[in-house]
Specification:
Order of helices and strands: HEHHEHEHEEH
EC number: 3.2.2.28
Number of helices: 6
CATH class: Alpha Beta
InterPro entries: MUG/TDG (IPR015637), Uracil-DNA_glycosylase-like (IPR005122), Uracil-DNA_glycosylase-like_sf (IPR036895)
CATH architecture: 3-Layer(aba) Sandwich
CATH topology: Uracil-DNA Glycosylase, subunit E
Organism: Streptomyces thermocoprophilus
Oligomer: single chain
Strand order of the largest sheet: 2-1-3-5-4
Helix content: 25-40%
Pfam family, one: UDG
Protein name: G/U mismatch-specific DNA glycosylase
Radius of gyration: 15 Å
Length: 181
């Protein structure tokens, strides 16, 4: 991959990144919003310190660790990726409360249309803001969108030091077992 400059990353600000989706997925993973590296490359969870791809493999969702550029391969495993908020920013704290609420509304409509078995929101703070559920915790939620169950996973960002790759993989594996059941 070509090394991206600071100017490349800044040019990606507010860019939209296409979802990796299909009807009837086993699990639709939902990030907070694309980071600048994701927007610059067009590949979800592209920042090198992000633990999404390693954790997805460690938890048993994929038979090997995929690279961000291989994101479309997720569809062959019944998995997909979207975001609560579509626009790219350097940090999630650049998003407004209204963007989260509108993102939650649009996400619910997308889930209703695509009918995945599970929606997995990666980031409890984003889930709380998008769905106005201040008491939500990591794990399965009572909320159902259409016929889709909802699970909140820890944010795989390298900034989330409360969770190690191993403890995240345990939580992701709980979801995988529920999705297979």
């Amino acid at each position: 991959m070509t090394r991206l400059t600071r100017q490349d990353l800044e040019a990606a600000r507010d860019r939209l990144v296409p979802d990796v989706v299909a009807d009837g997925l086993r699990v639709l993973f939902c990030g907070i919003n694309p980071g600048l590296m994701t927007a610059a490359t067009g590949h979800h969870f592209a920042r090198p310190g992000n633990r999404f791809w390693p954790v997805l493999h460690l938890s048993g969702f994929t038979p090997r660790q995929l690279r961000p550029a291989e994101q479309r391969e997720l569809l062959s495993y019944g998995l997909g990726i979207t975001n609560v908020v579509a626009r790219a920013t350097a940090r999630a704290d650049e998003l407004s409360a209204e963007e989260y609420r509108e993102g939650g509304r649009l996400l619910a409509a997308k889930v209703t249309r695509l009918r995945p078995h599970w929606l997995a929101v990666v980031g409890v703070t984003a889930y709380r803001a998008a769905f106005d559920d201040r008491k939500a915790r990591v794990g399965p939620q009572e909320r159902v969108i259409g016929g889709t169950r909802v699970w909140v996973l820890p944010n795989p960002s390298g900034l989330n030091a409360h969770w190690t790759a191993a403890t995240m993989a345990e939580e992701f594996a709980r979801l995988r077992e529920a999705a297979e059941g």
